[in-house]
């Protein structure tokens, strides 16, 4: 699965922002890369207070991203290229410009129009005078999760102020989203990525979470039992359509049991498992994460999911560069990590640009940063713009073929990206792009004959991760020194291997003859 961050993928309209036409014009690239499916991030009408995760109309296309006709043409072309398409659905909140929220604001306190959101009275401070927010819930983007209106009511926003949370106890909200799903399924989408999937229902007592906010969020704000009924209804809708329509949930949790509840056979098909993305460069850490992820989905029968990068986290080339060591080590490690990712059973989710080895752009000036995280924390947290810089396609300078020459991309692109463009890497067998293509092609060839089960050696080493699936062995050396290769013939390696040695920060796939 390949995540397309639409605004930064390819600009087909010449305004410096990526759009649906741009994606459509690059489908052959994605087919040749060797992915099976695309996940499109939100392209709905939106003021883009949170990059489009603030949806103002769930059944439209923002003019800056195209039209519904462009969407239909994109889906038809993707299918003709053998690519499936899933889209982001954002049920936890809307934009503050959504018709529902505007109606709610125009209505008096207590009016049914306010029922679609979470409005509460404030509470008196201990001195009995000043009014404060209804409780201590924090916004994920920093600051309080409550915003006060001039009439004295407060509304809940777990994310930015411009993203009021919906009230999923309101039957109208629930029905409306079912219609949204049908709207897109009727247009041919193969499924949905569900944003903040665990968050929809909140503790009806609105109790304080106290100092330990992060842990207390689970079960209070996230993963209330009521949410599962929604996904059981959604599953029935998906199954009423032909083909293999699916849903993958963004479920942040550190409890495997909680994750498994979302993956019961009548709920979501998949849920993101983010631990690989959070793990440091360490063989024991990777091994623990993989074993825990597999164990978490095992009772459910769902496929595990693996992620190294996304639009929400610093890119892994840069993460693996830390603590700063040998220049280029992040790239070597990113190559090595890919073979681990693609040897695992289940679904690998790639993020646009990782196939080019793009680093996080860390030196964006404050004035161009657009992520509300940066704004809401007064720059204390830099936010996620650095992984959302547009894709360099060709040429030697900005906009690197992302947009027509002379167009300024919505985020500035680094001056030293000429060697990272698709054009520069295309014919170079040593490039990251060529390596991704080879690994994806080989995975496609090998995967059908591999068992889902992973076998681990009895004597795990601190230096390397080695695991087997049938004929395929994957060895990833996380140390800086060479280790001995396991038995088998090397069919792909992230860097040259010498004799029976696997160099430091390198990985290899080895194949043994099929057991007789
Ligand atoms: C999810 C998205 C993220 C967004 C947030 C609020 O975590 O991946 O980009 O900011 O939800 O919608």
Helix content: 25-40%
Oligomer: single chain
CATH architecture of the largest domain: Alpha-Beta Barrel
Radius of gyration: 24 Å
Describe this structure in words.
It is a single chain. With 516 residues, this protein is α/β, with parallel strands linked by helices. The protein has 2 domains: 2-92 and 171-425, TIM Barrel; 99-156, Oligo-1,6-glucosidase, domain 2 (Alpha-Beta Complex). The chain contains 15 helices and 19 strands. The protein has an 8-stranded parallel β-sheet. A 4-stranded antiparallel β-sheet has the order 14-15-19-17. A 3-stranded antiparallel β-sheet has the order 4-8-7, with no helix packed on it. It is globular. The model has no long low-confidence stretch (mean pLDDT 95). Alpha-D-glucopyranose (GLC) binds at residues 50, 53, 90, 159, 195-196, 250, 311-312.
């Amino acid at each position: 699965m390949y995540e397309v961050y639409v605004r930064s993928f390819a600009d087909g309209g010449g305004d410096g922002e990526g759009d649906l036409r741009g994606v459509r014009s690059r489908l052959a690239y994605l087919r040749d890369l060797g992915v099976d499916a695309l996940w499109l991030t939100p392209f709905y009408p939106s003021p883009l207070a949170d990059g489009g995760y603030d949806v103002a109309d769930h059944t439209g296309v923002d003019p800056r991203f195209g039209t519904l006709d462009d969407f239909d043409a994109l889906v038809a072309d993707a299918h003709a290229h053998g690519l499936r398409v899933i889209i982001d659905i954002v049920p936890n909140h809307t934009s503050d410009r959504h018709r529902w929220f505007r109606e709610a604001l125009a209505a008096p306190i207590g009016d049914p129009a306010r029922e679609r959101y979470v409005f509460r009275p404030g509470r008196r401070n201990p001195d009995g005078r000043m009014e404060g927010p209804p409780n201590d819930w924090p916004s994920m983007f920093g600051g309080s999760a409550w915003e006060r209106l001039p009439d004295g009511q407060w509304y809940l926003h777990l994310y930015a102020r411009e993203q009021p949370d919906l009230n999923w106890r309101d039957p109208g909200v629930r029905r409306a989203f079912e219609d949204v799903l049908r709207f897109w399924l009727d247009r041919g989408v193969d499924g949905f990525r569900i944003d903040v999937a665990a968050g929809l229902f909140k503790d009806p007592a609105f109790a304080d979470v106290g100092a330990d906010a992060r842990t207390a969020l689970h079960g209070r704000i996230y993963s209330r039992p009521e949410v599962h009924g929604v996904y059981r209804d959604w599953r029935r809708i998906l199954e009423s359509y032909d083909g293999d329509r699916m849903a993958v949930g963004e479920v942040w949790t550190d409890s495997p049991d909680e994750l498994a509840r979302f993956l019961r056979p009548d709920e979501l098909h998949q849920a993101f498992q983010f631990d690989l993305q959070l793990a440091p460069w360490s063989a024991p850490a990777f091994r623990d994460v993989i074993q825990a992820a597999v164990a978490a989905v095992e009772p459910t029968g769902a496929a595990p999911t693996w992620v190294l990068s996304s639009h929400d986290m610093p890119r892994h080339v840069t993460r693996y560069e830390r603590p700063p060591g040998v220049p280029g080590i992040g790239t070597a490690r990113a190559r090595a990590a890919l073979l681990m990712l693609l040897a695992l059973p289940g679904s690998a989710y790639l993020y646009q640009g990782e196939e080019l080895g793009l680093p996080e752009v860390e030196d964006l000036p404050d004035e161009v940063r657009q992520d509300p995280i940066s704004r809401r924390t007064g720059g204390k947290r830099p936010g996620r713009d650095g992984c959302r810089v547009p894709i360099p396609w060709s040429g030697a300078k900005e906009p690197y073929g992302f947009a027509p020459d002379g167009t300024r991309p919505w985020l500035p692109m680094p001056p030293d990206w000429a060697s990272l463009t698709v054009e520069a890497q295309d014919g170079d067998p040593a490039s990251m792009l060529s390596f991704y293509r080879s690994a994806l092609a080989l995975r496609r060839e090998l995967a059908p004959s591999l068992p889902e089960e992973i076998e681990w050696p009895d004597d795990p080493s601190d230096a390397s991760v080695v695991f087997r699936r049938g004929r395929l062995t994957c060895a990833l050396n996380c140390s800086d020194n060479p280790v001995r290769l396991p038995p088998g013939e090397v069919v792909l390696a992230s860097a040259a291997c010498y004799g029976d040695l696997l160099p430091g920060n390198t990985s290899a796939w080895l194949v043994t003859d099929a057991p007789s």
